[in-house]
Amino acid sequence: MSARKRAPLLAGYHHGYIRDADPGALAAEIEAARPDIVLAGMGAPMQEFWIRDNAPKLSASVFIGVGGSFDVFAGETKRAPEFFRKTGLEWAHRLATAPSRAKRMTALPAFLAAAAWDALKHRLK
What we know:
mainly alpha, two-stranded parallel ribbon, 6 helices, 2 strands, 6% strand, globular
């Protein structure tokens, strides 16, 4: 039987409140851990913009925007009732129970348009 070296389950973490963090230092800290997967839980659309801006600087091969999933797993936020989850309307329940999300939610269509435009530009090259 050969001894297999097992990769660590968690290579590192950083809180998601990064507005005041030095982006270069944060990218260097993440790269030093050499993760295969980076989970960004900063909420939409900030996590998507962060992934877009930082993925080229990192050797990780998978980047996932997990939104508020960590809050749910930690028990800080409750999941929406089953009806909302099954119908794909969990976002509507979250918006109704946390109206402060409204400003962020209105940014999503602009983000989708920018992502589609970026994909089209890359396809035309």
